[in-house]
Here is the input.
Amino acid sequence: MKATTECIPCYLKQAHSAITAIISDEAEVDRLMKRIVPHLSGTRLQLTPAENSTVILKQVNKLLNTDDPFYRQKRQCNRVALQWEGELDSYMGRSSDRLKTAIKLSVVGNVIDLGIKERVDIKASFEAIFADGFVLDDSYRLIERVQEGRKKILFIGDNAGEIVFDKVLVRELIRCENEVVYVVKGGPILNDALIEDAREVEMDRLCRVIDTGSDWVGVVEKYSSPEFMRAYREADIIVSKGQGNYETLTEMNRKVFHILKAKCDVVARALGVRRGEMVCQLE
Amino acid sequence: MKATTECIPCYLKQAHSAITAIISDEAEVDRLMKRIVPHLSGTRLQLTPAENSTVILKQVNKLLNTDDPFYRQKRQCNRVALQWEGELDSYMGRSSDRLKTAIKLSVVGNVIDLGIKERVDIKASFEAIFADGFVLDDSYRLIERVQEGRKKILFIGDNAGEIVFDKVLVRELIRCENEVVYVVKGGPILNDALIEDAREVEMDRLCRVIDTGSDWVGVVEKYSSPEFMRAYREADIIVSKGQGNYETLTEMNRKVFHILKAKCDVVARALGVRRGEMVCQLE
Here is the structure.
């Protein structure tokens, strides 16, 4: 999908998140924000929101003189998410429809995102997805295909923390005798999971983990590694988590199962849902 | 209260609202947004968010060559809100605590704001305030003082549309034998109500309506008219609706009953509540 003018304030909001992830002095944050502001003029509606964000965030990194402002937050996200593993297991234990439950648990992971501060939010997200379900629900198609077994599944992950919630689904996909490759980013961008995160939560013990070869939000073909592109082309089924991957994969040429919560009006409109709603959509 | 760096993306968001209120071509919106972007560098943390917004919105008006981009939206807001008058009367008819109910109905008006598109949202807001009530609730103090009667009450209104919901409360204040002066803005800014709106919804038939003498968001003393400042000083009780008035009145020297829904994290933090929560606070 393409960016809209509505996205422009949001690029600045993301810049603010990155700056305040490591700087707390308001006067200094203000100074840095005002150095980022001129870069907004370089954003382009022909690109995806994810690509425009990346361009701005790379400018922020330059200013901050770091390549990973979210490093500490990611450690914290993984730590908090790992504390939920017992709860995840107990949901799975009570479930009569394990694949469906695992898909739902995976979207709970997407809800937590950077806001991983309060246990109560995660709890509320569990309740929401089990009460309301998916507004767009192609999960039965995913389940159908996965149950046939012997598929190559490319699972494109999103954030640190969230990756823990994906483990449950990855485990179920493997249990149905599929081969799963889990994808993280090739370099730090926002709070997106890296190989380090995959190791930290032991995703690499479950399946092969590769990266996009790129530190861009989502998946941008021209910046992706040949290894990733090969896995992308050879996969029988592609599962994608989160908005950044949705924004960019919809510009590429394969059908993908998108599992996400619509966190902004622009993505919600593209999906035909309302902000805050959760989807498992084949597009 | 003072602005924070978190407000800066929001100024741009408000600029986007103003631009798209009258321009639909995305390329043109993009061009105008990029002409507004440099003005963000002029925002100052020493000012209130409302003042910074006003400065940016005035630049938008210059670019758009209009003094009231929200003119049509305001007409629409009043029209939709007037359709709810029957519902408001029926809430009042069923109420055993008329003043408390009227205060609650008035905050429902604050919820609708610019998003006055779907009836269902207003309905949900009615349900929320009657189910959850105010998170900060000094309404009993307001009720106590109001019931003594013979008070001069200055009621500082907020948006078009919302003003219809305030009529119910104004009527109750008068029924308790108080004298009410209702305040609108002195010139167009955002979707804030003007004298024209007060007439359109017949607020002027209930009580005296004056304006701030200013087209700034909220109440900024140095731009306010002597008439308004006299009414402000002479009032026994001041009731204020909405965030803009909260942001600015907290910089002045009188205790005010603030009735609002916290629509952003910055104001929510200042109030000590969470975004989305509703308050009737004496500060």
In short: Residues 21 and 75 of chain A are 13 Å apart (CA to CA). Chain A is about 50% helix and 10% strand.
